Amino acid sequence: MPVPIVRIAASLALLASSASGQVPVAPAEPQAQEIVVTGSRAKSLDRKKLARALKAHRSGRSIYAPQSQLFFTMRPTPGAPGLEGLKLAIRTKTGVMPIEIEGGRRFVLPEQIKGKWKLVTNRTSDSFAIEPLVMSPGTSSADRLLGDLRLQCAVVWAMEKPDLPVWMRAFAGAFGGLCTGSIIPYFEWSDRAIAEASVSTGGVTKAVYVTADRHAFRPPVGDKTLPHTARVRFRYQ
Fold it and tell me: Which domain holds residue 207?
């Protein structure tokens, strides 16, 4: 999975090239985001982005996916060692609280953290990438709620919007927004090759677009005819 800012930039650049008359192409696998960690001491991740993610999930959960939970997933960057030995902790003025890493690659942050805090890690700058994942009970990587995907898009946008160029933010607004409009080609990515993807509701099933390399799909987050309870399902190669 690529990092959110690259996914957003690729989607907006794709739309811009289409609007200018150029032939759009499927987005290539982007480079992994670096989390700046230098020296031997634990260094903090981007607290502002993490705080924006928590806030966006809290504000949108009742609308899109009332039972959902916000996770953060990690993966090693190309050429880096695996995630073995990676540690995370929340550091405040009063102490340090270790963060459990579920399955070796996923963690949850407390929804409310009192006072000033930092999320620190013991890894180097090029060792892993991180991005949000919204999941509700009864779902899996092969069977997602559309409401989860819509809320995940909102979290991604909240995290990355302040750091995007002004023209990208204006472009997204002009076309109805990244997560609520139907024009901007917002993509989600998959570590596993997707054979086919579909969205189902009320006994009706429609195909979901999958890129030629089979590792990205375009969830119909802006399709207002589909309820948040629609299921987006995948068959992997």
Answer: 4-236
